[in-house]
Amino acid sequence: MATIHIRNQPVEVDVEAELREFNWTRPRWTSGKLLAASPFRYDQTPSFFVRLEPYGDYPAGTWSDSGAYDSEWASGGLVKLLSFLRNETYGETEEYLLNAYGFARDTTDIIIIPPRLKLKQRRQPLGDEILSGYVEDYSYLESRGISVEIQRQAGVLYDAKSRAAVIPWRDPNGRLRSVKFRTVYGKLFWYHRGATPIRELVYGIELAKHKTAILCEAEIDAMSWRQAGYAAIAIGGASFSEVQADIIKRSPIEELIIATDNDNAGAKLRRQVEEQLTGYVRIRQAYIDAEFKDANEALCKRGVGALQSAFEKSESVGGLKVKIR
């Protein structure tokens, strides 16, 4: 365990355990560092490292990427790295770590921050006009096996200035709630400022008109399953919130096929979804071939047949289904 500071509070975090939840390319674990290919780029060389223990003035969890495309992602701390790996905002990752580890016990310098009492305001939808500045350019996701038809159905656009795919997130009524930007030259992403947090949304839920749907982590994976002919939704990360569970409970979905990434975080997510939704929908578990990280990689390297095979081999999970409206 190593002490890092989150919101001015010292927190003891198992840095190595957190990092081992995810698949790394060409990893080498030493007593004090993780060396691997950069998670932020399409990289095959060990040009990235994370400190697993404090070193001089550098706390555990600090990292460096020698081949970074821009200075913002050349180095940083544990929260920033985990927010990327978990596909969350920085604040959501802070909340995850605080809930998982709490505050450091053996310390005398805890800073007590008085709570701010305020009325919780209802988040408003974003106006669709914010999408008007983006253009129709589907070449990036086409290169990843997703057709123009599927992209148009999902409302995908392109931001020429930042060279990023623009992926809208909507609520069950079709109102725009968030927008994700995903660079086409690397793996970096960010969300529209002032949007509803992803943990309060389910991607593609406005399109979930069928009784059976596949649940995965990322939007591109959901579009990959749609390319294979299935209804699919995504939760946007490696954790499943009560709000997301409630959205699915209130949807027309009666059978949910869980198809998360092939890593420890994906396995943990499977259990979370199963625990929260068993008894509300029928649950099946679908497993993509172990040689692939996720649905999109399977689609790109093996075609729709890889996903169709995983669907056909999906395993039923026992439990009484009581659909409550």
Could you explain the architecture of this structure?
By secondary structure, the chain is of the alpha+beta class. It has two domains: 100 residues, Zinc finger, CHC2-typedomain (DNA Primase, Chain A), CATH 3.90.580; 188 residues, Dna Topoisomerase Vi A Subunit, Chain: A, domain 2. It has ten helices and 16 strands. The strands form four sheets. A five-stranded antiparallel sheet has the order 3-4-5-6-7. Strands 13-12-14-15-16 form a five-stranded mixed sheet. Helix 2 packs across helix 3 and helix 9 crosses helix 10.
Give the CATH topology of the largest domain.
Answer: Dna Topoisomerase Vi A Subunit, Chain: A, domain 2
| Sequence stretches where pLDDT stays below 50 over 5 or more residues | 110-120
The largest pleated sheet is described as: 5 strands, antiparallel
Radius of gyration: 20 Å
Q: How far is it from the N-terminal to the C-terminal residue, by CA?
A: 44 Å
